[in-house]
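Q: I'm writing up a methods section and want to include an example of the input and output format. Could you take the sequence below and give the corresponding predicted C-alpha cells, formatted cleanly so I can copy it straight into the document?
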Amino acid sequence: MIEAVGITKYFENFKALNNLNCKIPDSCIYGLVGSNGAGKSTFLRLISGVYKPDEGTILMDGQPVYENPDVKKNILYVTDDLYFLPQSNMKRMADFYHAIYENFSYEKFNELTETFKLDPGKNFNTFSKGMRRQAATILALAAKPRYLFFDETFDGLDPVMRNLVKRCIYSDVLDRKTTTIITSHSLRELEDVCDQLAMLHKGGIVFESDIQDLKTSLFKVQIAFGDPFDQNKFPDIEMVNYSQKGSVANIIVRGDRDAIKAKLRLMNPLVLDILPLTLEEVFIYEMEALGYAFKDMID
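A: Here is the clean output for your methods example:
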C-alpha cells in the first residue's frame, strides 16, 4: 500500500502540493486526474523518491521512499518528459533497464516490441513522439516492477495505440498484481481502465472514489406528470441536481437505482426514464456538490 499523509511540497514561492492525503491499495490501477499545474507530476516524483516532501510522510508498505534503495528498486516511473540514452535504441535501453531491475524480462520485451510493431534496433531519433511513448511503456512493463507510475501515459498516442497501451497495463495488473498509477487531464482516457479515480486540484486531492461506486451511485431521472409540479414533489429522494422545462424534469439522483425507480413508478408519472451518466458527468455533479467548478479544474 502507498500512503501519503500531509504531503506539502514547495518550489521557491510556489506550493505545488498542499497537505495532500491519500491511500492507494495494492494491485489496483489508480487514476489521478487534474489540470496542468494541479500537482500530478510532483506527486509522482514524491512517491517515486525523486523529490523529498517538505512536510508530511510517504510510506510504501510501511517504509519511507526517499533515499531508500530497498523500496525504490521496486518502483518504475515513466515521466511525461521522456528520456533515453543519447544515440540509443530500444535494445540498448533494455540492457540499461536490465542492469537496474533484477526482474527485467527480455522475453516480455521481445513480445511487446512485436505486439507494438516497433523495431528495437532503430535509433530513437527516428521515432515519432507516439513511438517513443510506446517504447517507454514497453521497457517499463518488461522491467516488471511492483509499483508502476505513468505520467500522461497516452500523450501523443493515436486511438488504436491508446487502447493497446491500456490493455497491456490492465493485463500486467491482472497477471502480476502490480500497483499502477496513471495521471491524465482527461477523464475519458481513464474511465475504462482504472479501479479508482481521484481529482487533484490546487495541490490537494478534493475527491476520491472507487470507479464502480462512482458510476452506479449517481444516475439521471427524466420524469413528467400531467399536473404541475416542482422538486418538492420528491421529498424522499436525494437529489444532486434538479432542472425542469415545462412538464419534464431532469433529476440527478444518488441512491439505489431499483428502489428509487420503484418509488417513482408509484407516483404514476406520464414519463419515467432512468439514464446512466458518463464518468465526466458524474465528476461534474460530484464536484459541484463539493463547491468546485469541475470544468475550470480540467481545462
